[in-house]
Amino acid sequence: MNEKRAIQLCVEHRDPIGFEFLVEKYRREAHMHAYALLGNADDAAEACQESFASAFSSMSRLGELTAFYPWFYRILRNRCLNVLSRARTAAIHARLERLGDAETSVSTEAEAIRKEESEQVWAALGTLKFEYREILALKFMRGYDYQTLSTLIGIPRGTVMSRLYHARRAFRDAYLNQSATPTTGDRNHG
Question: Where are the domains of the chain?
């Protein structure tokens, strides 16, 4: 089975086998996007599950669908926006900190540095507004080009370029500010 046939089965017959093919094809990508937007694996998994369920119930009402993921991404994106609108910025920061604390202890200095840098990146991303987190995740974690970003997000290519420019600057500032702030363990008490 290919994507075109799976879409046809879903749109014309509400076929669960066709939809299962689409879910298997895009499950990992959807989870990565949701995780990048929400910063929490459990919330990402729930957003994906709800989005796939919503997509399945909506597909039979579509007259035509040529590509599944751009259409599905809008559903997933809206679900993530709803999750974020209910959560406060402080809750996002707390989740990011818990994520770092939940990791197993590291045995080498290089791993400790990598872990700290990763936490700093996620913490800095967590301070950015949704539009900036979204475009940075899609561009740098997934490697999408400007045209694909334009299609997925539903904005003109020029706006993609502008938003990406501002998102990079905002991330750089957040990362540098976050990196410059000493943690409790770094303070010298002597």
Answer: 1-87, 88-183
Give the class (CATH, top level) of 88-183: mainly alpha
Residue 6, token pair as written in the block: 């799976």
Taking CA 157 as the corner, what is the angle to CA 151 and CA 152, rounded to the nearest 5 degrees? 20
Q: What is the DSSP letter of 123?
A: H
Give the separation between CA 161 and CA 152, rounded to whole angstroms: 14
Tell the burial category of 107 from Cβ atoms under 10 Å away from its Cβ (0-12, 13-18, 19+): exposed
| Lookup result for tokens 């904005």 | 155
Alpha carbon 1 to its chain centroid, in Å, reads 28
The mean predicted confidence, pLDDT, of the chain is 82
Query: Mean pLDDT lowest for which of 21-30, 39-48, 108-117, 133-142?
Result: 108-117
Consecutive H or E run containing 8: helix 3-13
Q: How confident is the model at residue 127 (pLDDT cuts 50, 70, 90)?
A: confident
Q: What is the pLDDT of residues 52-88, one digit of tens each?
A: 999 999 988 887 888 899 999 999 999 988 888 776 5
Q: In this structure, which topology does domain 1-87 adopt according to CATH?
A: Rna Polymerase Sigma Factor; Chain: A (1.10.1740)
8 closest CA partner among 71, 59, 76: 59
Helix H or strand E encompassing 55: helix 41-59
pTM of the model: 0.61
